[in-house]
Write a structure and sequence with these properties.
The structure is a single chain. By secondary structure, the protein is α/β, with parallel strands linked by helices. The protein has four helices and nine strands. The strands form two sheets. It has a six-stranded mixed sheet, with helices on both faces. A three-stranded antiparallel sheet has the order 1-9-8. Helix 2 crosses helix 3. It binds inosinic acid (IMP) and magnesium ion. Magnesium ion binds next to loops.
Amino acid sequence: MLPSTAQLRQTGGRELKRIVFDEATIAARVRELGREITAAYPEGDLLVLGLLKGSFIFLSDLVRRIDRPLQVDFLVAASYGDSTVSSGNVRLLYDPETELEGKHILLVEDIIDTGKTLNRLVTLLRQRGPKSLSICALLHKHIAKHLELEAAFVGFDAPKLFLVGYGLDHAENFRHLPYIASLT
Ligand code: IMP
Ligand code: MG
């Protein structure tokens, strides 16, 4: 399929390989996830904790589909080391100001790849004494060897390709695309 002129305007002329999940497909699944999450938390305080930057579009669409009171905060995590060293170490550049103790925490992630980021964050967040801790990931590549905590809510099983759009970036580009595409 030839890319539309609107698509080429948004990417600055760079052609993407293929649209993997289009806008309508994402919107329908996010609506369902909102229903699943609403049903999963009949009571208690719910804090939706978005992992920046990748989750920003997904989270903003998702919380509008959750039909119960909730609070929103964010985490900014950074990996130590350079790209050749897969250390799996994570430090927080922004720590939520909201109290986590006694609340249901729903950690929202854009994509689970190796799972290293989430494994470190889960360990860290458990130390804050939440009432419960669950993960909602828009995409899951199902290649992680070990997950401290499996995602309770998953938007889509993702192909093992490098994906961009709807929050996901390549070198900080393409986050604003309203669909999810593969780059290669
Ligand atoms: P993990 O720690 O290997 O699971 O890495 C997760 C993070 O890597 C995600 O939050 C993304 O920021 C990034 N990532 C992994 N796979 C992709 C991809 O296909 N496209 C864009 N970013 C990705
Ligand atoms: Mg990234």
